[in-house]
Amino acid sequence: MKFDQPATINPIDRARVVGQPIDRIDGPAKVCGTAPYAYERHDAAPNAAYGWMVGSAIAKGTINSIDTRAAEAAPGVLAVVTHANAGDLGKGRMNTATLLGGPSIEHHDQALALVVAETLEQARDAAKLVVIDYATGEGRFDLAAAMRGATAPKDVQGSPADTRTGDFDGAFAKAAVKIDQRYTTPDHSHAMMEPHATTAAWTGDKLTLWSSNQMIAWSVGEIARTLKIKPDNVQVIAPYVGGGFGAKLFVRADALLAALGARAAGRPVKVALARAQIPNNTTHRPATIQRIRLGAKKDGTIEAIGHEVWSGDLPGGGVEVAALQTRQLYAGKHRMTKHRLAVLDLPEGNAMRAPGEAVGLLALEVAMDELAEACDVDPVELRIKNDVQYDPEVGPSKPFSSRKLVECLREGATRFGWDKRNPKPGQVRDGQYLVGMGVASAFRGNIVMKSGARVAIDGKGRITVSSDMTDIGTGSYTIIAQTAAEMLGVEASDITVRLGDSSFPASAGSGGQWGANSATAGVYAACMAMRSQLAQKAGLNAEDALFEDGMIKAAGKAIPLREAAGRDGLSVEDSISFGDLTDRYAQATFGAHFAEVGVDVYTGEVRVRRMGGAFAAGRILNPKTARSQVIGAMTMGVGAALMEELVVDTRFGYFVNHDMAEYHVPVHADIPEQDVLFIDELDDKSSPMKAKGVGELGLCGAGAAIANAIYNATGVRLRDYPLTLNKVIAGMAKA
Amino acid sequence: MKAFTYERATSPAKAAAAAVANPGARFIAGGTNLLDLMKLQIETPTHLIDVNRLDLDTVRETSDGGLRIGALVRNTDLAAHKKVRRDYAVLSRALLSGASGQLRNKATTAGNLLQRTRCPYFYDTTKPCNKRRPGTGCAALAGFNRNMAILGTSADCIATHPSDMAVAMRLLDATVETVAADGSSRAIPIADFHRLPGTTPDIETALAPGELVTAVVLPRPIGGSHVYRKVRDRASYAFAVISVAAIFGKDSNARFAFGGLAHKPWRTEAADAAAAAGANAVADAALAGAKTTEHNRFKTDLVRRTLAQVYAQQEIRA
């Protein structure tokens, strides 16, 4: 099914099942421990041996020699894989550095060997016996130093690296009120709960990978390219994934090493990366340096808006697209954005939850707070004043498909009690705390991706939906069941959903908050095909047929689906693909974040007291799972604002604090009341579901609201994340 | 983790004797620190002596009205002990500010005292560390040292001791009791128990090889108002950026000990003597000789501010 015209009334609009806050159908399996994860497939791959990765101890250079004899002779060791014996390997299109390094080394903790043994302990112990002699090369590890040599990337997610509209320089120079500030965000680690893990087994030349992965179809292609085997010989299975946040969009070392280890050992092998290996071996969100210039009239009307971004990556890598939202979020006749990419020899930068906006808004929305103060306009009103209903780089010819930023700001402010905010900083005291409130807009692009599904009804009338869609803790199983139930006029409990297997039709997968909308739209397409076939078999006209109560009803007849499907059942497959509606309309999701913080007046410790948000993201398919996504994202926003930082040691070229004792993410005690409001909205240009993404929107702007609340509490303006207590007290000492 | 042999000790003296007989041996109790270090091969014992079954898990009153805390008393139990909460509140508060409930359930009194630094370079076997591998250098000196020590440091090590409990025990003038291989016992004032790094940061305590901690003895209660203020980067499950333990008595008397500043809990007579002169005077005295780096310079300011807060809250209470 091609979606190239705005959706009209369709069966989803009944909203009898879709849109209901039903519990996650995989919930009982998760809490009972019966949902098997990639490292636990004893059922499917018995007798698996254990692999342990050996990572590079240097960031840049070459291997002079690698001596595996002692490791091979260690108790229980079955095989040691290195570049020397791994065979001829290709490289996937989506990883920048090779997944098995050597002789040249591209980054710290790049995999250089895999030790396979009978037990985990034996493998881990023997891994320490692999002796590698390095020739250490010179590397570039300092973004601030490298930014001068940064260059324009070919494109940023298919659009130009730089954009210009009107006369930015002239308008900014003439503006009555100017903000010109630099902001920095550090490298971030995904820190998902389940580490990268894969169990691999070969049957002849056929490879099966049970792998913790967000994108099954991509991974089949990537592993085939890397191993130089046919995609038909690769099956990837991931029914349950314990979080990803972008870390598992791609095939990583665990999958390749498990496959190589299984081939070398002649039996199934499983590999999980140790937590301390993940930050330097896998991908991370790259650090940014950002410059924002806002030129406005005295009343806050933006005339000129400019956003420049620098980030670094390995040669051939990509830029953090942190200026993208600035192209569309606010009005302003004169505009510019710029992305520059520096070459760094740090571990590979890549997507992490809401790539671009997550850190772009940490800068832009603080700059907006600064503008509000400079113009003496309420920060909520400033944002409303600069709302625009079309793509401001293009003009009114390209309207937003739907955009309810103003409603989010207004309703969110009311719910939060924004009117109680004292606009003058440093005025509100509660015991040892200075208390402040902050606001930020939320913005995240709406990406749609082709997505397929199979729908089958067996002879007993049981309906099964299969797709290689993943559920990374988001609720995919549940919303897919809801979609099929709505389409076929049954209950969600009547649907069996099978996900995460490359033998099923390829779906959109999970990433970029495109999964829920695109994958359910694919199920919609398959269900439309099923409706048509059922009607045909029942001798009814599908267009007139009503699917309800488990029956097809038309022309005064009511035929049970089981009967219509026949004794042999029925199976259909279709996919949704998207036409040019994303070109004809600007598509994005919107929201408003509010935060109240307490800042310890003595120690500068920041504790979030309340968070609230209002979000407009099309049809909310399941308010319960959507809310869970959003509060999780808001929690990640607390991390980005207050504590998350991979610290670069520029001498060794690596992230020093590479475990979860030292890389802080919020704990329960850091997270207070979180209030989430979804604004009623249907987006008929996004998909037949009239939904959009929502999982990442909750992160976008959350941290900036906290930064602005700190300013309101203390009068200390901080622009270098994370906003740790040492920065706060340095600011308070100056004030 | 290297392969190791294992035995279960039947008496403290036998445990100590077994340790002397096996130079590569370590005692294991809660294992909350040692097992992690073994997995990373930072600790590579060839033999483990399990002391968990020894009769060292009780808290008893001493003849002079103090408390003898068995080496195996779990942190959770110690923090909840009625007499500790009533008479040594600073200790209870320090314990509860540390780690997580699960870890406190497992971690023991002696193990907490003996836990090793959290310096990230100590934890990374591919990087230099004089504490882990003497003579390789200190990567933290010119590296990421925001969380490192500013007092009593040396050119060879700027690591901190991560314990909260030990800071409170230092404030309370506790004594560490031990047993040696020959069955003899001795009492080490806690001030002398942990060492400064000097040129041998790998030697962290006054314990002789094989010597086993059997108890920590607290002197009789001194009353007063007990404070443990831990400043940290997140609300729970984080090591102290700095911490201040204090007991305010009558007539402006007070005593102070600090965590997160040194290779051991930090306490000076001069700081205690300055109590009547106020927070700044105490800070000046406590911080005398502080040596900071670019990244941890803020700690001196943070100590001043935290002391000011502790004083301000005393005034509110008074």
Automatic annotation (TrEMBL), chain A:
InterPro entries: Ald_Oxase/Xan_DH_a/b, Ald_Oxase/Xan_DH_a/b_sf, Ald_Oxase/xanthine_DH-like, AldOxase/xan_DH_MoCoBD1, AldOxase/xan_DH_MoCoBD2, AldOxase/xan_DH_Mopterin-bd_sf, PaoC-like
SUPFAM superfamilies assigned: CO dehydrogenase molybdoprotein N-domain-like, Molybdenum cofactor-binding domain
Pfam (any one): MoCoBD_2
Gene3D superfamilies per record: Aldehyde oxidase/xanthine dehydrogenase, a/b hammerhead, Aldehyde oxidase/xanthine dehydrogenase, molybdopterin binding domain
Domain Aldehyde oxidase/xanthine dehydrogenase a/b hammerhead: 32-138
Domain of life: Bacteria
GO MF annotations, alphabetized: iron ion binding; oxidoreductase activity
NCBIfam families, per the entry: peri_hyde_PaoC
Protein name: Xanthine dehydrogenase family protein molybdopterin-binding subunit
The organism of origin for this protein: Sphingobium algorifonticola
Lineage: Bacteria, Pseudomonadati, Pseudomonadota, Alphaproteobacteria, Sphingomonadales
UniProtKB/TrEMBL annotation, chain B:
Keywords, in A-Z order: FAD, Flavoprotein
Ranges for domain FAD-binding PCMH-type: 1-223
Pfam families the record matches: FAD_binding_5
PROSITE patterns: FAD_PCMH
GO molecular function annotations of the record: FAD binding; oxidoreductase activity
SUPFAM superfamilies (alphabetical): CO dehydrogenase flavoprotein C-terminal domain-like, FAD-binding/transporter-associated domain-like
InterPro entries on file: CO_DH_flav_C, CO_DH_flav_C_dom_sf, Diverse_Substr_Oxidored, FAD-bd_PCMH, FAD-bd_PCMH-like_sf, FAD-bd_PCMH_sub1, FAD-bd_PCMH_sub2, Mopterin_DH_FAD-bd
Name assigned to this protein: Xanthine dehydrogenase family protein subunit M
